[in-house]
Write a structure and sequence with these properties.
Blueprint lengths: L5 H31 L3 H13 L2 H29 L2 H29 L1
Length: about 120
């Protein structure tokens, strides 16, 4: 009665392992789902579906394309994680994103001034 059940340790281990799984699954799903809403990919899929009149085939093609690009991202991400130091990658990523942001803001101001 007072002894801990050996099965409780197994269940504890399973819940520890499944917690990061579901956390990562929910995070990746919600991030990609929200990022894809209303973007050019969704609009292109909408137009192709409307023009072709074959929504199931368009859905299958679009799904395969999204799966392929996601697989490519995962494979490249894994390669980066295994081959580049995290600190260096973080700094380089930050510099690239900052550079892109500055470039886009500059282009926006130039376009605004010219019009």
């Amino acid at each position: 009665m007072g002894k801990p059940n050996s099965n409780s340790k197994i269940e504890e281990g399973d819940s520890k392992d499944s917690s990061p799984f579901f956390s990562i699954l929910i995070t990746s799903f919600s991030t990609i789902f929200l990022a894809e809403l209303g973007d050019k990919t969704q609009l292109a899929t909408l137009i192709i579906s409307a023009q072709s009149g074959r929504p199931l085939i368009v859905f299958i093609g679009a799904s395969l394309a999204l799966i392929s690009t996601s697989l490519l991202g995962v494979l490249i991400g894994r390669w980066i994680a295994n081959n580049l130091p995290r600190q260096k990658f973080t700094v380089v990523s930050g510099i690239v994103m900052l550079s892109l942001g500055i470039y886009l803001v500059t282009q926006g101001f130039i376009g605004f001034i010219q019009n």
